[in-house]
Amino acid sequence: MKKIRALQLMQYGGPDAARISLIEAPVAGAGQVVVRVHAAGVNGLDWKVREGYVRDAFPLALPTVLGIELAGVVEQVGPGVTRFTKGDRVMGPLGGLGAYAELAAVDAANLAPMPASMSFTDAAALPVAAVSAWQSLHFAGPVHAGQRILIHGAAGGLGGFAVQFARRAGAKVFTTALTRDFDYVLGLGADHAIDYQTGQFEAVVSNIDLVLDYVGADTLARSWQVLSANGAIVSTASPAILQSTPAGSRGLWFMSKPDAERLQEIAVDVTHGRLQSRVDAVVPFDDLPAAIERNRTRPQLGKTVVAFSL
Ligand SMILES: NC(=O)c1ccc[n+]([C@@H]2O[C@H](COP(=O)([O-])OP(=O)(O)OC[C@H]3O[C@@H](n4cnc5c(N)ncnc54)[C@H](OP(=O)(O)O)[C@@H]3O)[C@@H](O)[C@H]2O)c1
Fold first, then answer.
1. DSSP state of 15
2. What spacing in Å lies between the alpha carbon of 162 and ligand 1's midpoint?
3. Residue 45 CA, closest ligand 1 atom number
4. End of a domain among 253, 274, 290?
5. Tens-digit pLDDT profile for residues 48-103
6. Structural domain of residue 297, as residue ranges?
7. Nearest residue CA, atom 4 of ligand 1?
8. Residue of the nearest CA to atom 14 in ligand 1?
9. 126, 200, 214: which to mutate for ligand 1, most atoms within 8 A of CB?
10. Which atom of ligand 1 is least distant from the CA of 44?
């Protein structure tokens, strides 16, 4: 049986809990393709899964291969798949785990064709952050011109895209970020930036129609007071919003879903310069366990992508 390299979570724990090892190559099941992975995006969810923070919501049979998004080339087409053929360049979320491997079996429905001019590393940065940003922005209802939207974590992976989507919809966009990142978020189209370390957003903004909470914890707890009468908070970071929403307020927990069509549109916008995507580090596969730990411990200036051929 053919063996491939993969980053496997052996047990829940710290940086040593995930190890590069040899596993059996996957076979494409019905509706699936096997992708030769050229690049995969590093996400905060990687270390949250590694440490067991989401083990109740997503029970796993260990060992399991980590990684939630990839870009690569179709190597094998499973029964019933007509959208792709061997050799197609594709990108997408797994809709589960398994992207950190030389070969990954993925539901074909999750995948979008890559624009011809896009690199694998640029493509691997899009499926989770960009699509989650778009979906979470529209999760509480239609977004329209003149709406007042506050985006927490605006300089992060989801935040950078959400600022651009909200601006495009004609909303007035308030953001929280570090002063270091003000030029970045204002350059993406934010109207206001508030330093989350030196300022108190609740002292500056009010009458907000939609809060996008990409941070959670205390940031979420302090956000109820800035909402307008019909305002809503959508959180991607704190499932506890469902229990902590005050009576009479609207708080929604968001879960991303694969959307190949939206991903394809977003990728085309990136290649035409209509949307900015920030990849700040491309690391080799051997550096992946350390890159996942850096995501946990250090401020991220942009997306980290692992490339299999470096
Ligand atoms: N539910 C879902 O389906 C789903 C999907 C995707 C992501 N997520 C979650 O959504 C969250 C955001 O994801 P991401 O990929 O955008 O993460 P990210 O790239 O790490 O971005 C988070 C951003 O928040 C900033 N930040 C930290 N503390 C802050 C505070 N108190 N106030 C304002 N900003 C603060 C960070 O700045 P520094 O760099 O300065 O620390 C960073 O720019 C994560 O919790 C992730 O796990 C959920």
1. G
2. 12
3. 47
4. 253
5. 999 999 888 888 999 999 999 999 999 999 999 999 999 999 999 999 999 999 99
6. 3-128+258-307
7. 236
8. 157
9. 214
10. 47
156 CA from centroid of ligand 1 (Å): 6
What pLDDT band is residue 298 in, cutting at 50, 70 and 90? confident
Please report the pLDDT score of residue 1 as a whole number.
77
Question: From the DSSP assignment, how many helices (H) and strands (E) are in the chain?
Answer: 10, 16
Tell me how far CA of residue 135 lies from CA of 174, 226, 293, in angstroms.
19, 22, 27
Question: H helices within the chain, ranges in order?
Answer: 44-51, 120-124, 129-137, 157-168, 182-188, 201-204, 217-221, 241-244, 260-271, 288-297
Specify the number of domains making up the chain: 2
253's tokens: 């927990």
Q: Report the atom number in ligand 1 closest to the C-alpha of 176.
A: 33
Atom 41 of ligand 1, residue of closest alpha carbon: 299
Model confidence pTM above 0.85: yes
Nearest-CA residue for atom 24 of ligand 1: 153
Residues 71 and 151 in one domain: no
Beta pairing partners, 234:
212, 252
For the stretch 186-214, pLDDT in tens is 999 999 999 999 999 999 999 999 999 99
Query: Which CATH number covers residue 172?
Result: 3.40.50.720
